[in-house]
Design brief:
There is one protein chain. With 427 residues, the chain is α/β, with parallel strands linked by helices. It contains 14 helices and 17 strands. The strands form 4 sheets. Strands 1, 2, 3, 4, 9, 10 and 11 form a 7-stranded mixed β-sheet that branches. Helix 9 (227-235) crosses helix 14 (414-424) and helix 12 runs parallel beside helix 13. The chain is globular. The two termini are 26 Å apart.
């Protein structure tokens, strides 16, 4: 192994966490994975335990050469912390609609089309806490942390710092790179975290953490990103018209565009990515619905039996609970998974076909709002391995606009994208 410096990317998702270490040429030199136990996904204590387990799992010779570390996590998963970064609230996950009663408040004050105008946005959750927490707890609040911010803070031991990808749904102006006046006028303004460019250095690793895990004290902890943007960075997509579909627990579409598009009527928003915009949305359909009915092994077994020469006569909308974010932003959208045929093969066929249809409808919606036509489509996430699903996607996308180059991403791991972000920044 050479003596070049290495970067570590860490991905916190809904089923667990993954770490990938790379060298300056992008070669993976080590990796580790840790699952959540049942009910742990919203527990900061579990987040911390998995982070320590991941670091312990990386080989000592690799840890000894780490120069940068960055973390991605689910967008709009947030918690409130005190001045010592200790959680004051349970975390509210990216898809938690507990705070939806405050959506009308946000809609009345935020600009039209703002990504904050969603029942699950970080800002809606912040205002809900401000309204419902006791005065004693509110008095202790120092900062609102996104999951990635809080985890990085465990490594650098400074006040939590965010990045302009994670704070988009908090109301941060990614064009002007500042918090807008309308947001600073709100009662939660004092909770807003400092914001850096994704990949920018926050601080050196804490001496205590460096000593505990045998990591050099010169290792820099960098601002992170969201899980879907990390997957995009891993994919190899670089030009306007390139897109990435993440087939994970949810269905996430990202399309590179020269034009920024925000339209919350359809759950569409834009992340800044250098000189381009990453336009997209996230549907609540996806792998989590499939796994409600079948194990991963069973999905693979049943998929192999699907006969794509036969038409799919089921018109499903697979959701685990009411509520959809994209391509229609409707918190009351009901699941549609009936009638259920006697054959599990047919049932899975219906769900896979529906998710593929929703993906095509999503890209059609993006293009109708002004995004460029699909040029190349990369696939990330666990669903990328399912060949029948890929064929169904190609079929629906063909109906959208003819032949589209659909290919597997260069890397399907969000942790890899975050490692490249730590190594190179947003280049």
């Amino acid at each position: 192994m050479s003596s070049s410096k290495l970067a570590l990317g860490i991905d916190f998702g809904t089923s667990g966490a993954r770490a990938i270490a790379i060298n300056p040429t992008g070669e993976i030199v080590d990796s580790a994975r840790q699952p959540f136990l049942a009910g742990e996904v919203s527990s900061p204590n579990a987040w911390q335990r998995l982070l320590w387990q991941l670091l312990d799992s990386i080989a000592l010779p690799v840890r000894d050469r780490l120069s940068k570390i960055a973390i991605n996590a689910t967008s709009a998963t947030v918690l409130l912390c005190d001045r010592t970064s200790q959680p004051l609230t349970p975390a509210l996950l990216y898809n938690d609609t507990t705070a939806r009663s405050l959506l009308s408040t946000v809609q009345a004050i935020a600009p039209s089309g703002s990504p904050t105008c969603s029942a699950t946005s970080s800002l809606v959750k912040a205002l809900w806490w401000q309204k419902t927490l006791s005065p004693e707890v509110l008095e202790q609040v120092a900062v609102l942390c996104h999951q990635a911010d809080w985890l990085a803070g465990l490594l650098h031991a400074q006040p939590p710092v965010s990045d302009y990808h994670n704070v988009l749904k908090l109301g941060y102006d990614v064009r002007q790179l500042c918090y807008p006046d309308w947001l600073l006028a709100l009662p939660i303004a004092a909770w807003l975290p400092e914001v850096k460019v994704p990949g920018a250095v926050i601080a050196a690793i804490s001496p205590d953490i460096a000593r505990r895990f045998a990591i050099p004290t010169t290792c820099q902890i960098c601002a992170g990103t969201t899980d879907s943007i990390a997957a995009f960075l891993a994919s190899g997509a670089v030009q306007a018209g390139d897109a990435v579909t993440s087939l994970g627990s949810t269905l996430v579409l990202k399309l590179l565009s020269k034009t920024r598009i925000d339209d919350q009527a359809y759950g569409v928003y834009s992340h800044r990515l250098g000189d381009l915009w990453l336009v997209g949305g996230a549907s609540n359909t996806g792998g989590a619905v499939l796994k409600t009915y079948f194990s991963s092994d069973k999905i693979a077994q049943l998929s192999a039996q699907i006969d794509l020469s036969l038409p799919c006569n089921l018109h499903y909308y697979p959701l685990n609970s009411p509520g959809e974010r994209f391509p229609v932003n409707d918190p009351d959208r009901l699941p549609q998974l009936t009638p259920r045929p006697e054959s599990d093969v047919e049932f899975l066929y219906g769900m896979l076909d529906a998710i593929a249809r929703i993906e095509a409808e999503g890209y059609q919606k993006l293009q109708s709002l002004g995004a460029p036509a699909l040029r190349r489509l990369y696939t990330a996430g666990g669903g990328a391995k399912n060949e029948k699903w890929q064929q169904l996607r190609a079929r629906h996308l063909y109906h959208l606009r003819g032949e589209v180059a659909v290919m597997r991403a260069e890397s399907t791991e969000a942790a890899y994208g975050t490692a490249t972000l730590a190594m190179n920044g947003l280049n």
